[in-house]
Structure formats: C-alpha cells, structure tokens
Amino acid sequence: MSTTLYRKYRPQKFSQVVAQNHIKVTLQNEISSGKLAHAYLFSGPRGIGKTTIARILAKALNCQNRRGFEPCDECPSCVEIREGRSLDLVEIDAASNRGINEIRELREQTKYTPLKEKYKVFIIDEAHMLTNEAFNALLKTLEEPPAHAIFILATTEIHKIPETIISRCQRFDYKKVPLNEIILHLEDLASREDVKVAGAVIKNIARISEGYLRDAVSLLGQILSLGEREITEEQASLVLPKSHWQKVMEFINFLFLGQTKEAIQMINVLMEEGVDLEHFAKTAVETLRKILLAKVTGDWQELGWEAGEERLRQLVLNTKEISTASMVKVLEIFLEALLGLKQTAIIQLPLEIAAVKSAEALGKVQPILTAEKAVQKPAVEKSVPQEPEIQEAGAINLETVRQKWPEIIEALKDYNHSLSMFLKSGYPVAVQGKKIVVGFKYNFHYERIKEDKNLRMVEEVLSKVFLKPLSILGKIDESFGNGLLDDLAGQKGDNLVKGVIDALGGEVVK
Ligand SMILES: [Zn+2]
User: Fold this and answer.
1) Could you tell me the pTM of the whole model?
2) Domains of the chain
3) How far is the CA of 5 from the centre of ligand 1 (A)?
4) 107 by DSSP, 3-state: which?
C-alpha cells in the first residue's frame, strides 16, 4: 500500500521533484544547452530522489517533444521510460549485480547505437557495491565513452567509490529534504488522495522521517490505507511509530544534568509502554554521536532540525561544560549497552547500567539523599528538604539553578500559566549574588516577568525552591536559541555542587 502511494506520485518531470534545487538547476541548464557530461555521480542518503532525477534526466534526453529541459511525459519514449520498458534506459542494481560480467555486458551494449533515440542511459544504483574488477571495467568505459552513452552512478556511500571513477564524473551531492518541504509535499499528496489529515499528524510524519522523503511518503501511505476520509491524531497514533528521538533527547538531557534516577525511571516507563528498548538505545547512540560531532565541529544544524529550537537550546547549554573526552566515554558506554541488550534476560538492565556509568563518566553522581527526594512529587514542596545541605555550603550556583529550572517553571504554572511560559522562553546563564541572570531572546518576555506582581510570584517560587531570597535579572540576546549561544561559551558553572557532593560522600544511585 505504502509503496503504491510512492510509485503513484513518483515525480515524472523536474518541476515535480521536491527540493534538490541546486541539482535540478544545473542539470536543466545542461539539457537545454546540450552540454552534457558523459558520466554523473549522484551521492547522498537513501530515499531523497537520486534515482527519480536520474530517470527524469534520461527521459528529457530522449523525449521527442521536449520543451526546454522538461520531458513531455507523453511521447512514446517518455511513456516507455516511465513504464520501465525502454531499451534506451538500462538500470543496474549494483547491490545485486556486483560482478564484472554485468559491467562487461554493459560495455558491449554501449558499442551499439541506441535503437531509436539519441542517448542510451545507464543508471548504476548502489554503485559503491561494485567489485574492484567491475570498477576497473567501468573505468575503461568512462575513459573512452561512446558519444551516445550517458552513465549515472547513484550511491549512498561516496567514500567507497574509487577516486579514479569520481574524477571522471560530474558529481552532485543530494541533501536531506527540509522539514517544511516534506510537510508541503505530504499535504499535497493527502489532498490529491482526497483525505483530510490533521496538521499535527503531517508534522509528526515529517519529523519521524528525518528528511528522508520516501520514508515520509511511505508513512503517509500507511495512514491513508486506514481507508478513512479524515485522519485524526488518535487514529494516526495507531499506525505511526513512536517518535523515539523526542524521548531520547529527554533521556540524554537527564544524563547531562546528572538526573540519573529520572533517566532510570524513564527506561522503566518506556519498557512498560512496550517501547523497543533496542531501537531506543540505537537512537540514543546515534544522537550522542551527533551531539559529539556537533560539539567538535560547532555545527548544530542537523541536531536543530531533529530537536527543534527549544530542545536544541537546552542541549547546547547542557553540553557546554561537558568535555569531549567525557562525551566519548558516554558514547562508548551506550555502545556497550546496545550490545548487551541482545543477550540479556532483564531487558532494561544494560540501559540502567549505562545511565549509572554515564553519571560517573560525567562527574554527575548524585548523593543518595537528593536522589531519593527527587522522585517524590509535587516537585516544589518535596524539594524543600533536600536543599539545606547544599545551602549550608552556600552554593546557589549556575549548575544548581539549571538543575532546578524545570522545577521552577513547573511550580510557576500553579501561580500563572502564561508567566511560566514566559520564563520558560529564557534560560539561566549566570548567577550574580542573589540574582539569577536569565537570557531571553525577546525583550517582551522579560518585560512581562519584570512587572511587579509577576516578579513577586517568580521570587516566591525561587525562595521556596532554594530556601533563600533570590530574584531574576533578564539579559536580552536576539541570537538566543539560534544555535551556538556563543556569548555564553565563557560562562562556566563553578564546581561548588560537585564539591558539596564530594563532601557529603555522594554515591551512585543503585
Ligand atoms: Zn516525451
């Protein structure tokens, strides 16, 4: 069913292809001007249009009524290609035809002029799977290409293609499809199928598919196959896989904040909900890897795509003071857990151990006292007795504030819901004496918090949570949440909390 939808709406012209504009424009110019390369290399992730564009290119080259660069999709040549029965388009799946024989055969074929049309087009899909011998045979063909032959190599693993081949091809790097373009495409498909799909469902599919258009269309196909005229969030939830990365992100934030107990509780809740923990662990490893890379390269763009602005901002701040070495250690711990999951009787155990080990690796071991109190609810009242130890040591520092921040936001909801939302739009960036400095992207959020009545509420909550009078000082930063928060880079939380924990004889939560 899902494949049907994908095939049914597979683009037949350049104008129907979603995204990849940088590639379309160049190819269109080459077609219009007749200045074609003999060989093309399409590299990039799966399911984002490589083969589709290769076929449209083949069609355009052989179309009998081409207008500009666009194939007519109606003439016999176009129809034959569309229906997969053209003799002038040869598609080789290198994943199943790795041998030199196929390439030799291919070389034989190029010796003859195409039957009716101008070009014979060879699409070699999964080209990285070719054997060395096959690559060599291909190279010989590319070194002396017959005038009427065009080769299009498609691959998801460009690093496995020999340099000698790459240098003979015009290379195009395909990009994952942006979220908004996937959303628009899904909306279009749903309306063409005359089904009303809730906006939240479309967005959810787009997020789950992580930029892979084909996955997104397949998921939509699964939903449409419910056979309803109207699809609600509730109906969709029966079909759509749970969005793991959201949970994973929450879980990783727990680890980074040293909230081991919460992390372990989460694993157990997920297990009760029937979530596939192996898949969860895999996503956790992938996400930790991306965070590590982002930390090293300073490029948080891909994570931003997946996490959304709010989560990304928390993540950037939470990882700011974690060393790369500690991150690597945590990644290794979860890799180990992933392996352990395959051979354990207690399915949640490897992840629980990983959470505890991570706390050690990150130097975020909770004292038992804090951990036990932390699970009780509601947060504000119960958190009161856990604080004196820290307070005696005089330590209201940035790390403590950040740990307590979700609690403060939550507690403020009971006073005034929108005030809580305003405060949530900011994030603690420093502690100066009795003031918590909070960074805001928008001045008007801070303006609202500054109003006398509102400020008193915030102060009341702060004093309840921290057992001492504290206030808020806003700092406006328009780049806030746009990615790197560079100006915060210099802000380092002090080590008081760690010192206190050491002094109290902190232990790993069992
Ligand atoms: Zn045509």
Assistant:
1) 0.56
2) 20-173 (3.40.50.300), 179-239 (1.10.8.60), 244-366 (1.20.272.10), 379-493 (3.30.300.180)
3) 24
4) helix
